[in-house]
Amino acid sequence: MYNPATNKEWTAEELRLHYERWEWGGRLPSAALRHVQGASNVLGLVRFDRDLVHTLDAAGPEVQRAVALLAARLACEEAGLTDKLWVARALTELTEGRPLPPPFDDADQMRNTLRSDFPIPKRSALMAWPPERPPYCPPDTGRHTVSVVLPNPTPPALGEISQPHFALPAVIAAADPTPLKAALDAVWHAIATYGEHYPELLREIWSACPEQATSSAPVSPPRPYDAVALFPQLAPLARTATRLHPRPGSPTPHDSSIGGPLLWPADEPWPHCDGPHVVDGINLPMAPADLRSERRIRAASRGRSLTPQERDSLDRIRPPQTYPVGPAVATPYRGSIAMLPVAQLYARDVPGLPTPEGADLLQVLWCPFDHPIMPRTKLFWRSAVSVTDILDTPPDPPATQFDGYLPEPCLLNPEQVTEYPDHLELSKELQGQIENWSPWEIAEEGSDYEAYPQGFYDNALSAAPGWKLGGWPRWGATDPRPRPCPECGTEMDALLTIASFERNGEDCPWFAHGEPDDQSPASFDPVTPTEVQIGSGYDQQLYVCPAVPEHPHIELMH
Length: 558
Prior knowledge:
This protein is 30% helix and 13% strand. The chain has 558 residues and is of the alpha+beta class. The strands form 5 sheets. The protein has a 6-stranded antiparallel sheet, with no helix packed on it. A 6-stranded antiparallel sheet has the order 6-13-7-10-11-12, with no helix packed on it. β1 and β2 form a beta hairpin. α3 crosses α4 (50-59), α5 packs parallel to α9 and α9 packs antiparallel against α10 (198-207). The longest helix is centred in the first third of the chain and has 19 residues, at 61-79. It comes from Streptomyces lateritius.
């Protein structure tokens, strides 16, 4: 089958992913969701609330356990079972993290107990049926092939269900040893219990994960003007970038992430940096463990005053400095130190990843000291299936030179956008057209372009801010320069933008819909979700050879 977008034949894997993306509600599942798929009702739950499925996946085990318990309790309350002592006891054991007591250790005995415990609550509801979704349409192959559209199932005549009988499986599901599976299946059985009233249940479930309650997949707003319509010469310069939209979470080695654990072979040495590792005498180096503790305390106390214990912990982690400060020194971090994970990108998750033959995974690490003005990075390309034994506890470096060199673990929400070059990389003729008023006046009079048209073009039309793969780089710290491959001389392409900020200014026209727009205690900072800062707030841009990605890469501060 032919794919006109890539001018190549559709591969079997591309076709499989095309269907899988539709099956999971428009977004490919994580490795954790794939792992529980065969033994859970997750795809059934996707039909009712796809965003909830992906939110629970990203929420971490504590939230997943809380949701599982809530779903089981709400199902039993809806069914009128919480007055039954044997049910109440099971819910108590769930709450306290202990194994379920009899008869919940035997499904047949549980049903027999319900039948024999008179009176059985006579509660019923019409069967739950999910909202209709667009049918699956195979990709347009561009050739004379027959495509079969898979329609939605026809709703049956919705009969009544016995809510007590549907509620008890939610209790068993909530006790599953895998927190994610427990949450997904408990919610699924609770939906079945609520029947036609399931939207009431889903509102309650969303309230149990407030940090994710507004976390629909981020989407960049449309550009204020059509850049190619204004300047047709931009058309051949268009590039596709994949914005990563990092959000704090609990990634696993099987997830694409920023600052998360890597799928690193247990028998492969962990990368180290030989230095130099200079301390400037002004900025106090921090051990990664201390910095993580400080961030946890700051996050937990957001919106309230610090407790005395929290204040003592922060004073221990970061003692007050004495002045005058000393000069730059290279001790005590002589010799080799462990590098830190920066990014892990799976080709299945991140469209456009330029993997070498046989690879489907990019891993980026860096030394958390300046070399000389930003961290030194290393790239590793590998095949994920070749890693069968994962390194459990990689080493930490003794310190990071700056707080912003320890990325906060984030899950990704990739989105593809179209970009154009910074005005500094355009021809003199095209730069002159952007400075000229006439195309802008045709678009709209009295708009933001009037004060500084080149700046408006750069900020609103050319390249997106934030962490991204590919596309065009943004320039600020330096001017554009030739970027030849040090191995073969081929002009290098932008690979990964390691960004200090996800948006440029308060009124950033690239600020994605779906990001929280406040600084309430329940939300993260959408401007700096990764906690990374390069220099005074610049980007660290990695470039790779398009001919041979394994050639040595280069990195520039932008």
